[in-house]
Amino acid sequence: MRIISGIYKSRKIVAPKNLPVRPTTDMAKESLFNILNNQFYFDEISVLDLFAGTGNISYEFASRGTEQITSIDQDFGCVKFINQTAEAFKMPIQTVKSNVFKYLEKTNQPANIIFADPPYNFSIEEFAKIPELVFKNNLLLEAGLLIVEHSKHTDLSNLHNYSYSKSYGGNMFSFFENTTRV
Q1: How far apart are CA 119 and CA 36, in angstroms?
Q2: Structural domain harbouring 167
Q3: Is residue 64 included in any domain, yes or no?
């Protein structure tokens, strides 16, 4: 994997082969950040990276100047790798080793962008639990986005607070927004 833009642009990061991950492709990541670049000043936002895996998305935000990044993953190897990489590059990434659903139930730390890259084989009920917990617990700041990455074969358009989706090859990003704004 490589960092697309920012101060660490073109840096390659090689994750251990034994991690249970499926990193977001460079093409999909570049397209996602093109969308986000038009809506946010990266140095002014906070990010919550759920099912962080290799930390691919967190590194991209850090490279673009985001100072408040929290990466959540339940795999010890993933958390260790993110910590090592963040330390090596001096990136402001905090990690939490936790089951994402338990973390979302307990945290009271809202973010401007919440990115979730759960296993593609999740059931629709498991996918639905992500926006349900995010919005029930008011974890998305005003004008923020929840982005869920999933297979193009999964349709999340019927979930609460769904806004729109973008497809990139076999990857799809579904965007959720707080619809209860005044």
Answers
A1: 23
A2: 46-176
A3: yes
| Token reading at 37 | 């670049």
Distance CA 150, CA 91 (A): 27
pLDDT tens-digit profile of 166-175? 998 888 999 9
Neighbours of 156 (CB within 10 A): 19
Nearest-angstrom CA–CA distance, 111 and 6: 21
CATH code of 118's domain: 3.40.50.150
Interacting residues of 82 by C-beta distance below 8 A, sequence separation 6+: 52, 54, 55, 58, 71, 73, 93, 95
Q: Specify the amino acid at residue 40.
A: F
Q: Quick check: is 153 in a domain?
A: yes
Structure tokens at 104: 């979302």
DSSP for residue 65: T
Residues 43-54 have pLDDT tens digits of 999 999 999 999
Q: Residue 118 in contact with residue 87, Cβ under 8 Å?
A: no
Report how far apart the first and last C-alpha atoms of the chain are (Å, whole number): 41
Number of domains in the chain: 1
Of 57, 43, 54, the closest CA to residue 114 belongs to 57
- Is residue 105 within 8 Å of residue 137, measured between CB atoms? yes
d(CA 28, CA 64): 17
Asked if residue 132 belongs to a domain, the reply is: yes
d(CA 144, CA 46): 10
Average pLDDT over residues 128-140: 97
The whole-model pTM stands at 0.95
